């Protein structure tokens, strides 16, 4: 049975797409810690990031780096944090979160409430920056 993230990458469930390649897909987290909070997933289903084969994991990191650069271009910040938790959805994923301090990566704080229009605008800015990268 396909995971929620597999269905998102396949276009079966709507998402706010930020970037994609043949092997990977990036989209906005719908409960973001910050404007620009993006998830990067492999299209191939694997539950645990570190169960991925070495080549795929390396390629995913390079893809995530390009997405992070686009996030930072679209939403200037000190850095883009990369967080791997992997307990919420049984599909490997990386959180990319624009940060100005370590406190910006507190998953216990209240998530942002954004409108559909805001999500579309944010994803569009990241897509544009990714395409220009």
List the helices and strands and how they pair.
Elements: H1 4-9, E1 17-20, E2 24-28, E3 38-42, H2 54-74, E4 79-83, E5 94-99, H3 116-132
Antiparallel strand pairs: 1-2, 2-3, 3-5, 4-5
Please provide a brief summary of the model.
The chain has 3 helices and 5 strands; from the N terminus they run H-E-E-E-H-E-E-H.
Number of helices: 3
What is the makeup of the main sheet?
5 strands, antiparallel
Count of β-strands: 5
The first-to-last residue Cα distance is 35 Å
Helix fraction by DSSP (H/I, runs of at least 4): 25-40%
Strand and helix order = HEEEHEEH
The assigned structural class equals alpha+beta
What does the radius of gyration come to? Answer: 14 Å
Unreliable spans are none
Oligomer: single chain
Tell me, briefly, the overall form.
Answer: globular
Strand order of the largest sheet: 1-2-3-5-4
β-strand percent reads 15-25%
Q: For the residues shown, what is the average pLDDT?
A: 96
């Amino acid at each position: 049975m396909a995971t929620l993230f597999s269905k998102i990458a396949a276009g079966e469930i709507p998402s706010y797409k930020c970037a994609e390649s043949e092997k990977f897909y990036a989209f906005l987290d719908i409960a973001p810690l910050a404007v620009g909070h993006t998830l990067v997933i492999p299209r191939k289903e694997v539950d645990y990031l570190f169960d991925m084969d070495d080549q795929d994991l390396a390629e995913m990191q390079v893809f995530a780096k390009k997405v992070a650069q686009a996030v930072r271009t679209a939403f200037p910040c000190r850095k883009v944090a990369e967080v791997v938790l992997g307990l919420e959805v049984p599909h490997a994923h990386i959180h990319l979160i624009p940060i100005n301090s370590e406190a910006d990566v507190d998953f216990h704080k209240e998530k942002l409430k954004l409108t559909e229009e805001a999500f579309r605008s944010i994803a569009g800015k990241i897509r544009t920056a990714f395409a220009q990268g």
